[in-house]
Amino acid sequence: MRAMDYRGPRRVRVVDKPMPKLEHPRDAIVRVTRSCICGSDLHLYHGMVPDTRVGMTFGHEFCGVVEEVGSGVENLKAGDHVLVPFNIACGQCHFCKQGLFGNCHESNAQATAVGGIFGYSHTAGGYDGGQAEYVRVPYADFGPTIIPDWMDPDDAVLLTDVVPTGYQAAEMGGIQKGDTVVVFGAGPVGLLAARSAWLFGAGRVIVIDHVEYRLEFARTYCPAEVYDFREIGDPVVFLKKITDIGPDVCIDAVGADASGNAWHTLFGKKLKLEAGSAVPLHWAINSVKKGGVVSIVGVYGPTGNMVPIGNVVNKGITIRANQASVKRHLPKLIEHVREGRIDPKGIITHRVPLEDVAEAYHLFSSKLDGCIKPVLIPSAA
């Protein structure tokens, strides 16, 4: 089969790889029909995630048609079109029973760090991902969800990660009616976090970024007030001025690749002395009101960051963070899509053949051609 192949930082290509096989009675083999490049794939692409090995296939956002199931899978059959959550979850461990599917304790040998994730380094289990024609899906009797007949596959593939992650970012913010919510980052997750904030009752939603076309997109898609951090001076001072006492909730939807501070760029992105650039964490912690909530869904490596933890204590801030528990959110999100309250496919700007994966990564990473969200289409889709 044809599959994306990681060769080192900023080098990917499509090669022939062996077809995946059933390795456990709970496995399924899925023929991929859609696969996205996620903003967090760029952390891998940029060489910022530990234990990302040459030869790996990325891709944790995909949907496809079931080709084969193991003897223990009774809820799926060949021909079912399914969306597959990016979390690999057993559905039976202590954490899965609490709905914390992103924290599954069985799907990753390093589960104390993170649960299993498709195509996301050996830190997350070493599973190959869905930027391929076929993929092996472990725990297929629990994770995949059959796509409703009425749902567009372009909507379905975005329910595997970006929509649930943005939604959970807003949920973790504990947004109360009328709250002011600031989202750092106008990428796909930030856009969905801002849009979801309205569903939880926000009275004002602000998006901060420095990419002009993405801010313009956020202005209409979310919709939100938007500000370019290069034009407002110190973002912390600016946000306190326009909100009086600081936002009620701040959401970090950027993670390790953040721009905006030369020192963080040097130590986190160039020298890798901390787990990426923690600029949005500083802005979130220092601008949120005393007693406010900081919600983190931006991806950071497992090693330390220089964050102002003293300010967290002195301001009495609540910090909530996690990988999204996709399976838990799907019933509500499918309802939101059906009722038109969320338009996932509205963020797709590029549909690219899998064979052109290198160009798609370059386009997305360099923010060219107005790229918000690229979707890869295998030839066998």
Protein described:
This protein is an alpha/beta fold and 381 residues long. It is 27% helix and 21% strand. The protein has 11 helices and 17 strands. Strands 3, 4, 5, 8, 9, 16 and 17 form a 7-stranded mixed β-sheet that branches. A 6-stranded parallel β-sheet has the order 12-11-10-13-14-15, with helices on both faces. Strand 16, helix 11 (357-365) and strand 17 form a beta-alpha-beta unit. It is globular, with a radius of gyration of 20 Å. The mean pLDDT is 94.
Total strands:
17
| Helical segment count | 11
Give the termini distance in whole angstroms. Answer: 12 Å
Mean pLDDT: 94
Largest sheet: number of strands, sense, barrel closure: 7 strands, mixed
The SSE string, one letter per element, is EEEHEEEEEEHHEHEHEHEHHEHEHEHE
Helix content: 25-40%
Contiguous runs where pLDDT drops below 50 for at least 5 residues: none
Q: What percent strand? A: 15-25%
The gross shape turns out to be globular
Class from secondary-structure proportions: alpha/beta
Structural Rg: 20 Å
Outline of the structure:
The chain contains eleven helices and 17 strands. The chain has helices spanning 39-45, 153-158, 162-172, 188-199, 212-221, 235-243, 262-270, 279-287, 309-315, 326-338, 357-365, and strands at 2-8, 11-16, 28-36, 62-69, 81-84, 87-88, 116-117, 134-137, 145-146, 180-184, 204-209, 225-228, 249-252, 293-296, 318-321, 350-353, 374-377. The chain is globular and about 60 Å long.
